[in-house]
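batch_manifest entry 22 of 60
target: Restriction endonuclease
source organism: Haloarchaeobius litoreus
requested by: lab member K.T.
priority: normal
notes from requester: please return tokens only, no post-processing; we will run our own comparison against the previous entry in this batch. if the run fails, retry once and flag.
--- input ---
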Amino acid sequence: MTALDVIRRPEYTGARRCWPCTVVNVVLVLAASVAVYVADFPIVAGVVAVLGLLGVWARGYVVPYTPRFAPRLANALGVGGTFGHDEGPPERELGGSLGGEADPDAVVDTLLQAGVLAEDAEGLYMTDEFRTRWRDAMGPLQEATLDELAEAVMGVRMDADVRAERNERGEYVVVASHDGNRLHDAWLTRPVVIAEVAGVNALAGSGLTREAQLLAVEPLRSFLAECPDCGGPVEETTTVDCCGGPPGTAAEPDHVLACTDCDSLLFTFPTEE
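--- output ---
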């Protein structure tokens, strides 16, 4: 691990970078550098500028607690929810899944009995046999178009209406299903579709019913070791829509599993109450 890796904050850079906050931080760094220069410390001024700009590039910000005060500032200015962020699908996009809500303990027990997961003194882990089946099932889907992925979803969710949706923030497969008397739309990103359709296919020989397979694929995403789409490594990190929260809110970052190469969010861990 290098010194740059220590200060790097991928949750606030790359595709997750908030450009208004970046601009504000750059302006403050340059202002501080000019102030030091005017005070007749030109070498120190150069150091302040270089280190400050490097910090903004690697971390997304250098002013402490920017992700905490920026949403409140945006809301105070009356621009919360739009400040520096494009319009896109609703907030459900990060939590979408082919299956519905399930009891996590019951799902784990089912997967343990099916030999998909195993447990030792260090905790739960995915068996090598199932991980290989799952990875093999992802292969053909990685080359599929969005419309072909939507067709693949229809093959495992024949009870739902499925459509491909494209907008300025990306491409999604939308699964519309009835939850009791309420119509529920799940916005699935490309990596999620690949992981979950492949998960259902890999679970086909496990003896689980189709309903159990669909309930299991979302928790299975927490065991991903590489991105289902680009194949890049994944890491546990946090994310926050820095200035894009709804008016009157300043949400804490979610704990997520994300790809370090393409920045795709692969799983959002449940919030501890």
